[in-house]
Write a structure and sequence with these properties.
The protein has eleven helices and no strands. 77% of the residues lie in helices and 0% in strands. By secondary structure, the chain is mainly alpha-helical. It has one domain. The N and C termini lie far apart (37 Å).
């Protein structure tokens, strides 16, 4: 089944987020702060490490610029924030961190190289090992995030499963047209977006929050670039 890895990943996120909400939600604020800073630095490292897999720096720059323009025009960040606030209101969680937790976690779980490559492997080869490994990592992060930001983290499992499931479905039927170069550059752009999440977590004084969600289209620019370049070769 091509969606096995996706389902396991979603269940791990939701279950661990619920666990984290009740286990570490009452720890002192000073511990919450240092935990989030530690997570921020870890996320930045993970993002940069993945981005260094890039072998076409010009394409990476083009992808980030064009993707960010498209995302800003669509206003993905605004739509995700409104969706989070809508869910917050409908589910009766009141005004809090639900929307921030939902948006931030959704971006983190969806844009990384493991999400993209893992979903592709599930679709093309029915190999779910990458998504199984991602589930363990995501589960640990979900416990920490939910303990500091709240139950909104659990609901990020929904867009994560939709996103990964869609990639697996498309890859299952279009895998033969996806080169290793394309997959590598998609992962590199996605990883750089993850680094931006970590920078936001640091909450650097005087620095405006990066609308990371608006950068998501950058991860898919290589999927357009390589077919176009192929026409001229």
């Amino acid at each position: 089944m091509i969606f096995t890895g996706t389902l396991v990943n979603g269940i791990a996120i939701a279950a661990c987020a619920v666990l984290g909400t009740f286990i570490i939600k009452n720890i002192p604020e000073r511990f919450n702060e240092i935990i989030m800073k530690a997570v921020a630095l870890s996320v930045i490292f993970i993002g940069i490490s993945g981005a260094l897999e890039n072998e076409n720096i010009i394409l990476l720059i083009i992808s980030m610029v064009i993707g960010s323009i498209v995302g800003e025009a669509i206003d993905i960040d605004g739509k995700m924030t409104r969706l989070g606030k809508f869910a917050e209101k409908k589910l009766g969680f009141g005004e809090g961190n639900f929307s921030k937790a939902f948006v931030t976690s959704s971006i983190l779980y969806c844009t990384g190289a493991m999400a993209i490559i893992g979903a592709m492997n599930s679709g093309i080869q029915l190999d779910h090992s990458t998504l199984f490994a991602k589930s363990i990592i995501d589960g640990v992060v979900a416990v920490i995030f939910a303990g500091t930001m709240g139950i909104g983290v659990a609901f990020s499992a929904i867009p994560t499963m939709i996103y990964e499931g869609f990639i697996s479905f498309v890859a299952h039927f279009a895998g033969d047209f996806m080169s290793q170069e394309m997959i590598r550059e998609v992962g590199a752009a996605g990883s750089l977006i993850i680094a931006a999440i970590g920078i936001n977590f640091l909450e650097i004084k005087g620095m405006k929050t990066i609308k990371v969600a608006n950068m998501i289209p950058a991860a898919f620019v290589p999927c357009v670039y390589y077919p176009i370049m192929g026409l001229f070769q």
